[in-house]
Every structure is written in C-alpha cells, then in structure tokens.
Design brief:
This protein is of the alpha/beta class. It is 45% helix and 13% strand. The protein has 13 helices and 10 strands. Strands 3-4-2-1-5-6-10-9 form an 8-stranded mixed β-sheet, with helices on both faces. Helix 1 runs parallel beside helix 5, helix 1 crosses helix 6 and helix 8 packs across helix 9. The longest helix is centred in the first third of the chain and has 18 residues. The radius of gyration is 22 Å and the shape is globular. The termini are far apart. The relative contact order is 0.09.
C-alpha cells in the first residue's frame, strides 16, 4: 500500500500484551480487536500482536476463558509497544513475574501502555513517577495513596504522558487502542476503525460518570468514620464543616487534614460527591431535577447541574439518556 505525501507515515508495530492467570479478558481482547480492525482497514498487517507471559502456552482469564498461543517472555525480542492488561488483584500487589516481564519489554519499547489496573504495574516499576496517569475509577484513590508521586487523574479515559499511555477500566482499553491507532496512522484510520467497531472515537464524558463516591473504601480513623457514616445516612442534612467537625469532636482544620490524608479531597467536596450520588439515584428512580436537587441536599436545579458538570462532565439530562433503563 503506497502513501501520498499528505498521509501520515505508516509503519509496522510489534505489540506485546502482557498477560497472566486472572487477567481481565476485555483488557486484552478489546485493544486486540481494535488493532485487528485497523489492519483490515489498511489491507495489511501493520500491527503484529503477541501475548506474552512468564511461560509459553496459555493463561486463564478471570472469567475462565483461556487465552492460547501465549509466548514466553524469554522468547520475545524487542517490541515497539507494550500493553499491560489489568486484573483486580494487581491493586493489592503486583506479582514479581508480571513486573519482571513488563520491565524487560519496556526497556526497549518506544511506547508502554496499560489498561485498567495494569497501571499499578507501571507505577510499581517507577515508570509513572512525576507523570499523569489514570486507571479504573474504583482504583484511582488506591493508586494515588500507594504511589503519591504519580499524578492520578480519575476522570480521564486515557492519558498519554511521554512514551507512557494509561487507560481507565476495562472497555476503556478500546478507547486507548483507538488513540494509539490515531497517533500511529492518523484520525481517518482511527475513525474508520471506530465505525467498524460501532463505538465512539471520542467517548462523551469521562469515566467519573460511571463512578460512585459510596464505593470508596471506608475510613480507617474513627473520627472520619463517624463523619462519613453520618453524611451517607442523610446526604441532605446540614453538613457544614463546623457541624461535621463537631460531630467528630475534632477541629475543622484537623478534619480537613483527615479528609486529605484518606480521600485526597476536602470535606465539602466529598459531601457534594455523596449528594451527587444520591441525586443520580433519585433521577434514575423517576424524580424531577428539582426534586432530586432538594432531596439530595444539593438544593437548586442550578447547583445540581453544576455538580454534574464538575464531577461527571455531563448534564443531568445526558446522564439520564445514557443510564436510564430502556
């Protein structure tokens, strides 16, 4: 296939996917399918992909599906791009063999990417120090705590910082792979690939629209636990900083420090997020925007809309259109 002078330069990429027992299936197959469809659109194999693990043979994914044709890391030479797929257990600790394989492949690669909690592997190797990165919204707070030198952005679907690319959870690996295709071959091919997959090239909104503040880990300290349980039990209550501090028998300044330490946010912002969770559920239950604002404690329609924009990057109406039952 020849290129005109106006087309982006096309080159073949060797792409290695780091896989292991317990890996999330779609973290692997989503990006793989994007690259396969890009090859079809190009009419040739511009992306050569390989599944890499500690040993050759096969790995069993978290869903029980077996991935065959896996190549041992020792048999893989230099690759252009490394993609580390995620799994829930990586949040609690990265297996040594996964870290070693990633380090070896990343040393000679032009680009290193991760899907979902695969970012914990890159962070654990120090590759994301001082860099912007993202991961699944459920694990973003844990990543920020474990790796304070990483600039975690929990709302992003995927982020490129230098040669490192990280993505949000699971299906966001498709968004990441489309971004790789666009970077390599231009927007036209990326759009054609997205159309074939029946997905957005630029998905509307960030991943925060899927998240919930109530899924954050419970507070470790007793004073903070009292405050968070009080707010969750009655989001519409009078939860000013002085009132919250009084309920925990600490000073407002100390309570603010506790929130920053545990949740990396302020008390008022955390309360607003809990109220927004409540408003989201009220809207899905059929309440009007005005009633959802009042019952959740956000107060007015305008305050609710601003909270949606600030935390979810969408409007209440858009949220309903995407998540209300068919």
């Amino acid at each position: 296939m020849s290129n005109s002078p106006h087309q982006p330069q096309i080159r073949t990429h060797q792409v290695a996917f780091v896989v292991y027992d317990g890996v999330t299936l779609l973290d692997v197959t989503g990006p793989l399918e994007v690259l396969h469809q890009a090859n079809r659109a190009l009419g040739s194999s511009r992306y050569d992909t390989v599944l890499v693990s500690e040993k050759s043979g096969q790995v069993t994914t978290a869903s029980g599906v077996v991935l065959a044709g896996v190549v041992a890391a020792a048999e893989v030479g230099l690759v252009d791009t490394v993609v580390v797929a995620g799994a829930d257990h990586l949040v609690d600790g990265v297996p040594t063999e996964v870290a070693d394989i990633t380090r070896a492949l990343a040393d000679g690669a032009e680009r290193v990417a991760s899907v979902c909690s695969g970012a914990f592997v890159l962070a654990g190797l120090g590759l994301l120090d001082g860099r912007r990165a993202t991961t699944h919204w459920r694990h973003a707070a844990a990543m920020a705590r474990q790796y304070p030198t990483v600039k975690v952005e929990p709302d992003a679907l995927h982020i490129t910082d230098g040669r490192y690319v990280t993505s949000a959870g699971i299906s966001a690996g498709i968004d990441l792979a489309l971004g790789l295709v666009e970077a390599d071959h231009g927007a036209e091919l990326a759009r054609a690939t997205a159309r074939e997959l029946v997905v957005f090239l630029q998905r509307p909104g960030g991943q925060s629209q899927f998240s919930t503040a109530l899924d954050t880990p419970p507070a470790r300290r007793d004073p903070l636990r009292v405050v968070t349980e009080t707010v969750v039990a009655d989001p519409a209550g009078d939860h000013t900083l002085p009132n919250l501090a009084a309920s925990a028998a600490v000073s407002p300044r100390h309570l603010t420090r506790l929130f920053q330490s545990e949740f990396q946010t302020t008390p008022s912002r955390w309360v607003e997020r809990v109220r927004l969770d409540r408003a989201q559920q009220l809207l899905l239950d059929g309440h009007s925007i005005t009633k959802a604002a009042r019952l959740s404690g956000l107060g007015s329609d305008e305050t609710l809309r601003r909270a949606f924009a600030r935390h979810l990057s969408i409007t209440p109406t858009e949220y309903l259109r995407r998540f209300q039952t068919a």
